[in-house]
TrEMBL record, chain B:
Keywords: Cytoplasm, Exosome. Its main location: cytoplasm. The lineage of its organism: Eukaryota, Metazoa, Ecdysozoa, Arthropoda, Hexapoda. The keyword Cytoplasm applies. The keyword Cell inner membrane does not apply. Residues 21-150, 154-221 form the Exoribonuclease phosphorolytic domain. It comes from Mythimna separata (Oriental armyworm). This is Putative exosome complex component RRP41. GO terms for biological process: nuclear mRNA surveillance; poly(A)-dependent snoRNA 3'-end processing; rRNA catabolic process; U4 snRNA 3'-end processing.
From TrEMBL, chain C:
Belongs to the RNase PH family. The keyword Coiled coil applies. It is found in: Cytoplasm; Nucleus. This is Exoribonuclease phosphorolytic domain-containing protein. Residues 50-179 form the Exoribonuclease phosphorolytic domain. It comes from the Eukaryota. Keywords: Coiled coil, Cytoplasm, Exosome, Nucleus, RNA-binding, rRNA processing. Pfam families: RNase_PH (PF01138). GO terms for molecular function: RNA binding. One of its GO terms (cellular component) is nuclear exosome (RNase complex). Residues 275-303 form a coiled coil. It comes from Mythimna separata.
From TrEMBL, chain D:
One of its GO terms (biological process) is RNA processing. GO terms for cellular component: cytoplasm; nuclear exosome (RNase complex); nucleolus. PANTHER family: 3'-5' EXORIBONUCLEASE CSL4-RELATED (PTHR12686), EXOSOME COMPLEX COMPONENT CSL4 (PTHR12686:SF8). Keywords: Cytoplasm, Exosome. Pfam families: ECR1_N, EXOSC1. InterPro entries: Csl4, EXOSC1_C, Exosome_cplx_N_dom, NA-bd_OB-fold. Residues 106-142 form the Exosome complex component CSL4 C-terminal domain. Signal peptide: none annotated. This is Exosome complex component CSL4. Residues 15-52 form the Exosome complex component N-terminal domain. The keyword Glycoprotein does not apply. It is found in: Nucleus, Nucleolus. The keyword Ubl conjugation does not apply.
From TrEMBL, chain E:
GO terms for cellular component: cytoplasmic exosome (RNase complex); nuclear exosome (RNase complex). The lineage of its organism: Eukaryota, Metazoa, Ecdysozoa, Arthropoda, Hexapoda. SUPFAM superfamilies: Eukaryotic type KH-domain (KH-domain type I) (SSF54791), Nucleic acid-binding proteins (SSF50249), Ribosomal L27 protein-like (SSF110324). This is S1 motif domain-containing protein. Residues 82-160 form the S1 motif domain. Keywords: Exosome, Nucleus, RNA-binding, rRNA processing. One of its GO terms (biological process) is U4 snRNA 3'-end processing. It holds the Pfam family S1_RRP4. GO terms for molecular function: RNA binding. Its main location: nucleus. The keyword rRNA processing applies. CDD domains: KH-I_Rrp4_eukar, S1_Rrp4.
Amino acid sequence: MAGLLLSQSEKLFIVHGVQDDYRSDGRSNLDYRPMELETDLVDTATGSARLRLANTDLLVAVKTEIDVPSPDKPDLGKIEFNVDCSANATPQFEGRGGDQLAVGIANLMQAAYQSSQAFNLKQLCIFEGKQCWKLFVDILILECGGNLCDAVSLAVKAALFNTRIPCVKAILMDGGDVDLQLSDDPFDNKLLDVGTAPLLVTLCKIGDKCVVDPSAEEESCSVVSLIVGITGTPSCYSDQENLAEVGGKFSTIDMNGPGSVAPKTLKDAINQGIVAAKLLDKALAKALINERKENIRTKKSSYGFLK
Amino acid sequence: MPGPDLLSSQGLRLDGRRPNELRRIQCKLGVFTQPDGSAYLEQGNTKVLAAVYGPHQAAKSKSLQDSVVVNCQYSMATFSTGERKNRPRGDRKSQEMSMHLRQALMAAIKTELYPRSQIDIYVEVLQADGGAYCTSVNAATLALIDAGIPIKAYVIACTASLAWKDGEPEPLVDVSHVEEAAGGVVLTVASMPSTGAIGLIEMSHRLHMDYFDTVLSRAMQGCKDIEVILDKVVREHLAEGWTKSDDAITI
Amino acid sequence: MPLDYRRFNGPEDSVSYKRFTKGYLKSYDELYKESLDDKGVRKDGRALSEARSLFARTDMVSQAKGSSYVELRKTKVVCSVFDPREIPHQNEFSQLGQIFCEVKFAPFSCPRRRRPHVPDAEEKALSVALRKALEPTVCRHMFPNYQVDVFIYILENDGSCLSAAINAAGLALADAAVPMYDVITSCTVAIVGEKMFVDPTEAEENLATISPSTPINHGIITLSMLSELKQISDFTQVGSMDVECVVKAMDILDKECARLVPLMQKVLVANVLKCFETRKRLEEEANEKEQLLNAKMDEWKKLLKFT
Amino acid sequence: MAALNKEKLKEMGKLCIPGMRLSISNKENIAGPGTYELRGYIYATLCGTLKIEQTESEVRTVSVESPRTPSVLPKTGDVVTAKVTVVNPRMVQCSILCVGSSVLVRPYRGILKKEDIKATEKDRVDPYKCFRPGDVILARVLPMTEIHWYHISTAENELGVVIATAEGSPQGVSMVPISWSEMQCPKTLVKEPRKVARVIPENINHALFPIRDNSTKELEIEADK
Amino acid sequence: MTSHVKIRLASERVNHSVTTNNDLPRFYTPGEVVTGMEDFMRGHGTYAVDDSLKAAVAGVMQKVNKLICIRPRKNRYVGEIGDVIVGRVLEVQQRRWKVDTNSRLDSVLQLSAVNLPGGELRRRSAEDEQMMRKHLQEGDLISAEVQSVFSDGSLSLHTRSLKYGKLGQGILIKVFPSYIKRRKNHFHHLPCGISVIIGNNGYIWITPAGQTNVVEGDDDEMAAVELQTVSRSDRDTMARVRNCIMALAASKMMLDDTSIMFAYEESLKYDDVKDLLDPEAMLDVAFLTQHRINYVVEE
């Protein structure tokens, strides 16, 4: 994002603050700002989530379509990320103004979800070689207050957690063509297994230290930030006890911004990223499971942008 | 004549409404902190977010000496419709919508107050279930009010259609997507109900001259009804932000 | 998209006929065996930690200010760099100049045919990665408000094309006398389990991208270094791997990048020598011409006096 | 080949490539063009040869000279050669062709404002009486304030028009300066006003069209007598 | 390493309103007739149709003699001569700076309206222009006073006083200008040991008390002051004040030194400053502050 204009002494103040592990709003370098999450608020999508992290506001919707698997990977489904920077966020995004940022985030998400250890595309297969589900994950950025990547990954994971795929009742083979019969019952559907879905952690290098969850002001003080995608821990998302402790692996690492880093900083930062990602994953799982429990008890009413 | 099936034998519409009944309207002003004004509006299942930036300094190339530049962008989220859209904006339809939006709002904004400035109005349709344009106009009006930009009166848009009941014409207000798709006439009116001025009229499909007035007056009635609802919300919003220490009244 | 509508363009998406031959879809193990035999020798005879020999030269394209050609056996890349020019559609004052990168695959560069005009997603991603790698290398404050164009044309792709492109761009920038902080070198490693394929071919890259059924490390890491300053200018990773693996790969890449530096230096020194030679030759020629001209002048003057 | 190279190397001096550490940076050693300073050392930014110049007593400027035209833009304070493209009452627009002695690959746009034309009597300057489109001028670059436009100044004796053709004269016939503010066509003898630069002749063009000082002119006239 | 991550659900969303719904004033909405009488003067936020005066914005009426204004809940800053503002330099132009002051047009700071190092009035020469960027460059924050308002509504600023000028280290908060209470003094040294400048334009500047504006003095001295590290305790107080102001603004409360100080005192029961980022704590602080203000007003 085009940086905020800051004066040299404001930047200095922020840099000194990071050095001192005490930021302008009282957080330490490893603290996140409070977030708010809601799922299932877009009726036209199969799964959706809205995340608000301080001023950053996102809406993610998952739409499912039936597609033909690629010939190289006949037993895998497809997932596609698409980011749209709404001009509501800033007038700079008007027209095609937000495209560069949008493509950057979409590519990052695509890379993070590439490995089957991050997201198993086999669960989207309907009929090997013929039919599979294609998930369109549409991310709409409504307001920017720093730390977009982390927020996007959290909202995407929540939206996927909320996604219900209709059950296939029957597959009819008519010559070479496949005819699917989907269940009409809206409650007859399956949930996706998203426990391992990766979360992105942005480590913003300010001065000599790295901070998580940078605000827009902090982002403009930094010349380079490191984005790590770390796979989730499925045991957080499930009641089953005997799940193998997997996850916590890097699914993508990328550098952003015009600066460079020393190898040691990079090594420290990725370790810091793992710690942060595990905490994020736990908090997200807790929130999602709570919400699901709440919805079972009471009839869900969507808050959305009201209230 | 299309549309005999738009009304049931009991005189109810496909979604159970009466012909002159609006869909449920819910809204909120000031949803975001960064824009100068913002609003969220739901009309039935059509959901729209609007944000207003400005008035701020206009770019040199656009700047007008005697009035404000109003800049609108209408955009539909890719997931807003049943079928996924490929592009949120830039296609012909949304460009046309942006133009219509601008036209309707320009009629109300007191443009002469802000020379060399610019007002940006951005509308994001999150869910479209018929009447997305109307909801956008209404949401934009609320966002303008939230931003404290002077307007002559509420700009309200509403649609109306025509159905047949026992051989008699029966106009329908606030057309939903299903009714739109059924192929009847859809008349869109953007007006300032309190002054009676009309900013924009658009109609699709064919309608006999004789029935135009009835359909139009039903749409206008719809606008008036919506205005009452929105006015109430605006007042509530003002009251909510009211604190006692406010020294506003200095008589 | 410019499409010729007067002719039949064929389907948007086509499948190679090879897909229907036997043994097209090899199993993971088969692919693995193909890439690496029991003795730890790769298909092209290299050891795991052995990079392909690098051939590089400058001055390839006469129209460009600076250009280079880099070859890693079957991966062949041409790069040209042009003088700073105005940034189109820019209306904000920026203290730092910009680098515009465009990576293009030749239509015949790989088995899959490429669309000649429209840049596809991979090309766009490579362009962004290249820009990010070069930004910390170039002294951008020397040309505020202007941009330097870097064009990469990939003649043949057999893996590691991003590192090849970065290496080529570094040489071409130096050749164009664009001020730079350091020589930039880059290298890629493909990871499959415990094995690390340095400077992988395309087949090895593919193998590393396929997610194996067991939760082992896999993925690709590309790193570019400014070796004198000991700074990492770009780091990209995809796949799934744990911290130890990333750190180990970093060390390998670090060494490999350092190994390339003398090679690059040699090329650049040769370039300088050649430049001086040409300049000397040109100067000599100019002197000769001037002497001739002076002689002529004297002749004329004599004639003038005479008349 | 190697021997040859060695010989040449001696002749050229020390070769540099970007990132090479050249010397310590202190009061005695200053980073010059083609170098940068980092953590107390001077490093090279270009491929080329090392030049160490003794500028003042005990101060040495370390710089790198590239065999090619460096890919840099006109800097504040540089003297540039430019061609006038547009003249209007407020300013003169021109395209910058050379910086110092190096020719630019592409021209850059320059603006010469009315008040920057002359050092004295700034208010009474008329751009039309100083420049005409097509003139080649020498100018100094002012600090950059606008994107894509270099502000330049000719408010020095040595800056101003160097090559100009009078109206109606054939192409290629340059006028000869006859005073600070006038030039004359040697062929048609037309006099035109210009902001003339005082140039010290140094190459062949000046040999063809020598710039005569007024003093020598007088001598000649005397001789004629 | 302790990290702090909190994700709440929308169902736990906090309503920031601290309203006591008993004595609400009369609100006007656009298009509503304010008065039918002719002998009133038309002020901001109103327009005349035929013989009646109508509201153009949604808000409350403000009547000064015969001038009727409708004041909206929030809008862009409308400057008045003598207002104290905090602004950011956007552009360095010839003989003037363009300054962002949250008004509808960029404000102007003329080169002749600043105290340049050297003191006395000098002829503003070409060298000065080149020095302009040294004095104030893009991104710099300044405090200034509105000198005059141009006919198109844009503001002309001046910094010809020791208390105005370039700002050093600190935190800037942006709130809507209507939340700022107009006072005689907008520069406050709070008892908690820090200073705030509450700009009329809604920009609030928080800075350690020792750091007065860097206006005069030679360059070295200026640089030294600017580079000093702010001590941890000052930083802590500043962060607390920042979060308190954010809490008050989220509840749409009026801001002045009293409300900020009240909020600061109420917030002291939260030991950790970062706890004040939680919506519940924010509401709590705002509510208690409102309570105290009500109490003071009744006294």
